[in-house]
């Protein structure tokens, strides 16, 4: 696999877009019959001189007859003029002189434009674009490949088929996970070993006296499960199910942690980092497992936030105390019913309001709204973000920590709100949220960067308040800036992500880091493109919303979802081009291939599963 930005840097002469989505027109029976007389895809697709391309021929019976007579094979390239990976394969694979020599000697080469020959496109659509199919002279399929193929892999395939021109056995293409260059193989293995060794196989969770959901550890386990690791899937389910014991069964929300190396001795304070972190994790887990208990945990946490930690104007407070009477342990209190609790009073809520805690809550609520369609969670997230911008937002894009305009600016506040606003863009497709996230992220790049790598915790550095870097902030910032770069097509954010990762990837940091799983997640995301799904419509309508709902619930931890309503102008990545369609359609691209348009929810889900193996409900 190749990260979007790596591909962009390598193939910048082809496109200004980092990840162009394939745009295809609707194939109808009339189009099929009309297309039979069309010609092959113009050589101009590659934007390269004819001398640097294979000798592309039209699809016809005469080509196969010639191949049989000359004892050659036939290679078919099904492409589209809008397909990013088709352009990449032209410049980096078919333009290679060794590949062209091999084709000229042993093959007749056919190129077909899907739009011009939709009957072939529909025949090979399951392979994704570009599609590469090799035939013998009898038009029998010998090999099929989906998506981009580099020159080395294609040379190997073509050479082997010449030596042994027999049909390949059908087999699934193995999942290949790229790795980022910032983290060395040795350090990566150390962190992977720490992740495995830290697991408590008896109780679930981390092997330590205090039991709680370590968010990066659980999310990394879910990521490995998504990639097909059954043991990690079982570990994730064991941990998430065990942690349900930390729920408040009456008011909802989660207690901070449990002692005694089990989940049955909770400390019952409720802080925002726990509520937001757990809500997001159970939302991610619900997508992969579709367990009602996970949905219930998320719903009850939303209710708790609304009933206890939400201000009259829709902003969020920081925490709720564990004790009704300060200093008097209240475990027995939390075993009472709602009415019995209220007779004794309600533990105090810290009603201070900070951007960081609000950003955490907004992102978690938006994530749950994506996967569930929960309208209440969506409204709470949008309202809180709007209010936070109004009461703490500053013209240069940053957020004040509290009411004091002269107070120091903190990375945690800016990062949490920048992530929250990007999540709201995914959820709502409102361009203003993406613009706001860009503005705040620019403030981060400008004010918090350390020359040696990474980002410091606060803006103003003094002798009594020196600069230092916090690991989890740099992990979350690396992930955020990388994803923002995908949405915005602005290289400075990718560079910022790499800057944070360089700090995290130093031996001195990894030797003492306690959130090794977070570094591994960032390592994966910087090297692999997010699943990219776009809904295209002429305006706001229910069919488009239904397609968007399918996209939102796929891989909310790392995906790029957009709804392009043509009457509202271009997306921020203005080089993305889509066809004019008579009805709403959805498109999906993975790290190396793109799909046909989908016009129904069922078909959209089928194509996502075909290209990714997704099991999202």
Protein model, in words:
There is one protein chain. By secondary structure, this protein is of the alpha/beta class. The strands form four sheets. It has a five-stranded mixed β-sheet. The chain has a three-stranded antiparallel β-sheet with strand order 8-9-10. A three-stranded mixed β-sheet has the order 12-11-13, sandwiched between helices. Helix 22 links the parallel strand 11 and strand 12. It contains 23 helices and 13 strands. Helix 11 packs parallel to helix 14 (355-372), helix 18 runs antiparallel to helix 19 and helix 19 packs antiparallel against helix 21. The two termini are 26 Å apart.
What amount of the residues lies in strands? 5-15%
Q: N-to-C terminal Cα separation, in Å?
A: 26 Å
Number of strands: 13
How does the helix and strand content classify structurally?
A: alpha/beta
Low-confidence stretches: 1-46
Over all CA atoms, what is the radius of gyration? Answer: 27 Å
Q: How do the strands line up in the largest sheet?
A: 1-3-2-4-5
Give the overall shape: elongated
What's the story with the biggest beta sheet?
5 strands, mixed
* Helical proportion, percent range: 40-55%
Q: Helical element count?
A: 23
Mean pLDDT: 86
